[in-house]
């Protein structure tokens, strides 16, 4: 059998997303995007770790914005001392189902890597040089890149012969023009410390903007889209003809929209004030703005379902938090309408964007001058499919487009390792 034949039958991609104490994974078949296994290991390195492994029905989409299980789940608790032990346990689970890491159908492993800096505008086939570059970017993502590196090194040790690909959260945003990416601070200082706007959630913005074009029956090069990725983390992007021209997150994921626990945009002098007047340390301010702000800081809850429930009961703090969240969202829709000039679609995605009809309704309300309108009946429909929620004939289409970062990572990984393989949407 020629190597071409062997490669031809290898149609599966394992996607790994490693955090500092967690490892999420999905095994996908790239002939049709079917999910063969989905799971995660939590609390790696702690006293009791937990592995949850599920076998979704083939092609099953998660329809509720969460990572809900599916059929045939298995759970294991024990102690996985490090990422190597966790991945070995995952490999055992996959082998138990006859879809192990050594099966000839496995074509590659795709790794989510948070920060690719300016160096990576595309996915990269991992070698020692790429690993060194990701390492060099650690100061820009001190929490994430080391965890991502750990996952890559562990997977390489287990299958050194298998192609492994890094797919970067920042890559989609590298097309931003310099005037959108640069902060208006001293150029020499900015350059010396690589301070600029990088943006995040890029894999989701890429996927959703492309799917939105499909929903409109157009090629991505023909449409301008505002993507609103509203999850616990949240970001907006302006995508012109398939290329990102602006996004709301910056040097770090702290900038931009009001999020579950992050403040989003504030006057940077707030931090000086907290340091000088409130006597807080830099680490305390970091924690305040990243973990104790946003919706949770405003009203004590970061789950939109809980906030809506409280509003229905007449809770004023929850109502104000919701109002601040929506006000910021509207400002970004307006700003990106100006950046794009012509907006063909506004696409809502991620946990809040896909599920919270009230957020979509409130964000669009009053923006008729921008061509935006909502069809209340369509907006109330719950579905895991991409769908239009604006009335027929609206100048700008409002859409709900469920994101799928794992499928996008798998797609980019598969595309990189062989041009002559079957392509999926
Ligand atoms: P993500 O980060 O994309 O997983 O989104 C998580 C967030 O989605 C949660 O914190 C909730 O605020 C929100 N969410 C999930 N399901 C719903 C729902 N049915 N209604 C409103 N918000 C939801």
- Quaternary arrangement of the chains shown? single chain
Number of separate helices: 16
Radius of gyration: 22 Å
- Number of beta-strand segments: 14
The assigned structural class equals: alpha/beta
Helical content class: 25-40%
The CATH topology of the largest domain: Nucleotidyltransferase, domain 5
Largest sheet: 8 strands, mixed
Gap from first CA to last CA: 29 Å
Query: Mean pLDDT, as a whole number?
Result: 92
Proportion of residues in β-strands = 15-25%
Number of domains: 2
CATH architecture of the largest domain: 2-Layer Sandwich
The strands making up the biggest β-sheet line up spatially as: 5-4-3-2-1-6-8-7
Bound compounds, please?
A: adenosine monophosphate
Q: Could you say which overall geometry the principal axes of the C-alpha atoms support?
A: globular
Q: What is the CATH class of the largest domain?
A: Alpha Beta
Stretches where pLDDT is under 50 for at least 5 consecutive residues are: 1-6, 58-70
């Amino acid at each position: 059998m020629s190597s071409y034949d062997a490669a031809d039958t290898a149609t599966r991609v394992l996607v790994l997303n490693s955090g500092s104490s967690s490892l999420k994974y999905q095994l996908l078949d790239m002939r049709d995007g079917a999910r063969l296994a989905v799971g995660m290991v939590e609390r790696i390195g702690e006293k009791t770790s937990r592995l949850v492994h599920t076998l979704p029905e083939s092609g099953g989409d998660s329809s509720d914005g969460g990572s809900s299980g599916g059929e045939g789940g298995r759970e294991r608790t024990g102690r996985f001392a490090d990422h190597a032990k966790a991945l070995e346990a995952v490999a055992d689970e996959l082998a138990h189902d006859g879809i192990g890491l050594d099966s000839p159908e496995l074509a590659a492993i795709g790794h989510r890597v948070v920060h690719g800096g300016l160096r990576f505008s595309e996915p990269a086939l991992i070698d020692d040089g790429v690993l060194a570059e990701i390492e060099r970017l650690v100061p820009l993502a001190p929490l994430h890149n080391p965890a991502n590196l750990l996952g890559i090194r562990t997977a390489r040790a287990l299958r050194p012969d298998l192609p492994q690909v890094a797919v970067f959260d920042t890559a989609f945003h590298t097309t931003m023009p310099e005037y959108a990416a640069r902060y208006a601070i001293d150029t020499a200082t900015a350059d010396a410390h690589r301070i600029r706007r990088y943006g995040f959630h890029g894999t989701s913005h890429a996927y959703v903007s492309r799917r939105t074009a499909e929903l409109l029956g157009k090629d991505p090069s023909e449409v301008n889209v505002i993507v609103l990725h509203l999850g616990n983390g949240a970001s907006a992007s302006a995508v012109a003809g398939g290329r990102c021209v602006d996004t709301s997150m910056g040097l770090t994921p702290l900038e931009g929209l009001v999020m579950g626990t992050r403040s989003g945009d504030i006057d940077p002098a707030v931090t000086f004030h907290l340091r000088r007047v409130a006597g807080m340390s830099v680490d305390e301010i970091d924690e305040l703005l990243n973990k104790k702000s946003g919706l949770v800081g405003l009203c004590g809850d970061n789950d939109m379902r809980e906030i809506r429930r409280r509003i229905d009961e007449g809770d004023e703090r929850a109502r104000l938090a919701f109002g601040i969240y929506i006000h910021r969202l509207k400002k970004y829709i307006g700003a990106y309408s100006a950046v794009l000039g012509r907006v063909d679609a506004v696409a809502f995605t991620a946990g809040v964007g896909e599920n919270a009809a009230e957020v979509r309704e409130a964000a669009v309300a009053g923006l008729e001058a921008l061509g935006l309108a909502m069809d209340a009946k369509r907006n109330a429909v719950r579905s895991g499919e991409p769908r239009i929620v604006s009335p027929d004939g609206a100048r700008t289409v409002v859409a709900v487009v469920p994101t799928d970062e794992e499928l996008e990572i798998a797609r980019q990984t598969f595309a990189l390792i062989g041009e002559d393989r079957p392509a999926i949407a």
